[in-house]
Design goal:
Strand order of the largest sheet: 10-13-14-18-17-16-15
Helix content: 25-40%
Bound molecules: phenylalanine
Distance between the termini: 57 Å
Number of helices: 20
Length: 497
């Protein structure tokens, strides 16, 4: 009988240890093959000839989803509800009581469902139950299960099956990754066969033009296609979730009539800060907060601009302001740095177009010396924009931001008073999400100390918002670092925005 050369090689390798079950790694090592495809293909062919058996094991690896992580931190929803219920007097165990205790409306629906499945019912508006201990211990088991998974990936064999089944039906609590692993062993026939009787032929697996141009292709033996063979499911290409979010923001602003602007990462302290009337002694300017550059150490700024900023900072020039009163250092202005906000782009845009009404936005990377943690990165993005026109006003600014966030899917927006050296009034923009107001950025009307030196006579609505904050909201993440981890498995599971 004949066997392909690869099959023969694998069979010979396996016959060096007849009663052994071979792993992929062992077979790769013994055959010298680099690619597991050869082992899989030859193994299958040998199985079809009856020489080899393939042992398949399915593995499920369980880890926590984003809600699972929340549950480890704050407790499972049913645990929080149950803890509240058992502490109340009977008559206070009502929906109204729940909300008063701070539970959110979005938690109520799923929460009641969970309680019902645990044996709690609602009788005349009051939560009632019979077997308190049984409910408590079931919730304890669930909590234990979730806590065990904290920070770990665990094989389903080491976990309770019923719990896996329960949690897999709940949103984002656990992730299940399935793997199939294969091992190969000789059959009786594979052990007994007389290898010298096996004729080796080269089976052609890939047909190339070069091969067909040579002699002998008519007589060659070809490997059969096995259309039933397992093949890895290709993970289709998709944009990174951050990229699709940026695209979405872009289309929302374009739709609202804005044009897009861009700028360089490398800027001077003058344009990044002095133009914005940020005092030269401001703490955010220090080396701890700003990345100053060795190259270029200095960046040229026209003298007229420096003279104007100096006079605005020192005495207010003729903007109606008193300025900061201290001596302005022009050399400080020339220092090169990595921009700390994208407001530098909009300010430069006004300086270049002082007499043209404009509505522009930009989405760009900014840099600050931050220690990396759950909510901070030293590089992040801002969504910046301005409305520069004769009747720009605070109400116009607020309604523009509201429109933007509603188009993004977050209709509840509010502003609170804030402070920035370059705007008056200044506001902080917040969006309501899952029971909390989240701060997403700053905005305001540029002060005359900013606009007049740039040659503008109109008010400017300006804002700068954090993109990653918005992304965490949209993707339901609670750790900013998750956005940039090159974890393909995880990225492929993130929703398409
Ligand atoms: N530049 C501010 C920041 O980085 C945001 C801002 C932009 C505030 C424009 C007011 C006006 O947080």
């Amino acid at each position: 009988m004949t066997l392909g050369n690869n099959e023969k090689k694998m069979l010979s390798a396996m016959r060096t240890k007849t009663n052994h079950i071979w792993s992929l790694d062992e077979l790769l090592e013994f055959t010298g093959w680099k690619d597991q495809v050869h082992v899989a293909g030859s193994g299958k062919a040998l199985m079809e000839e009856g020489f080899v058996e393939i042992i398949e094991t399915k593995e499920k690896i369980i880890s926590l989803g984003s809600e699972g992580n929340n549950a480890v931190k704050n407790g499972l929803l049913e645990l929080r509800l149950w803890n509240w219920i058992i502490l109340q007097k009977d008559s206070n165990r009502t929906m109204k009581g729940l909300f008063e205790a701070g539970f959110e409306r979005y938690e109520a629906g799923p929460g009641i469902g969970l309680l019902k499945s645990l044996g709690v019912s609602i009788d005349a508006g009051i939560f009632v139950f019979e077997n308190e201990n049984q409910i408590t211990s079931l919730i304890e088991e669930r909590t234990e299960f979730i806590n065990k998974l904290s920070g770990e990936k665990i094989n389903s064999e080491q976990l309770d099956n019923q719990m896996i089944e329960h949690f897999s039906g709940r949103k984002l609590l656990i992730n299940i990754e399935e793997y199939i692993s294969r091992e190969w062993g000789l059959t009786e026939k594979g052990i007994k066969i007389n290898e010298s009787k096996l004729e080796e032929v080269e089976l052609i697996g890939e047909i190339t033009p070069e091969f067909l141009q040579k002699e002998g292709w008519e007589k060659a033996r070809y490997k059969e296609f096995d259309i039933n063979a397992d093949a890895p499911i290709p993970m289709g290409g998709r944009p990174h979730p951050m990229q699709s979010l940026i695209e979405r923001i872009r289309s929302v602003f374009l739709e609202m009539g804005f044009s897009e602007i861009e700028g360089d990462y490398v800027q001077s302290a003058g344009w990044n800060m002095d133009a914005l009337f940020i005092p030269q002694s401001h703490p955010a300017r220090t080396m701890q907060d700003t990345f100053y550059l060795e190259q270029p150490e200095k960046i040229d700024i026209p003298d007229e601009m420096l003279d104007l900023w100096a006079s605005v900072h020192e005495n207010g020039h003729d903007t109606g302001s008193l300025g900061w009163g201290s001596k302005f250092d022009k050399e400080e202005s020339k220092k090169g740095l990595l921009r700390t906000h994208t407001t530098v782009n909009t300010v430069k845009y006004i300086a270049e177009n002082p007499d043209n009404p404009s509505r522009v936005f930009g989405i760009g990377r900014v840099f600050r010396q931050e220690t990396i943690d759950r909510t901070h990165l030293p590089e992040f993005h801002q969504i910046e924009g301005i409305i520069h026109e004769p009747n720009a006003s605070l109400p116009m600014l607020i309604s523009t931001l509201k429109t933007f966030y509603s188009k993004m899917g977050y209709p509840d927006v509010r502003v609170r008073p804030a402070y920035f050296p370059y705007t008056e009034p200044s506001v902080e923009v917040e969006v309501y999400w899952r029971g909390k107001w989240l701060e997403l950025g700053g905005a305001g009307i540029f002060r005359p100390e900013v606009t007049e030196p740039l040659g503008s006579e109109w008010p400017v609505c300006a804002w700068g918002m954090g993109l990653e904050r918005l992304a965490m909201l949209v993707l339901e993440l609670d750790d900013i670092r998750e956005l940039y981890q090159p974890d393909l498995e995880r990225l492929s599971r993130m929703p398409i925005l």
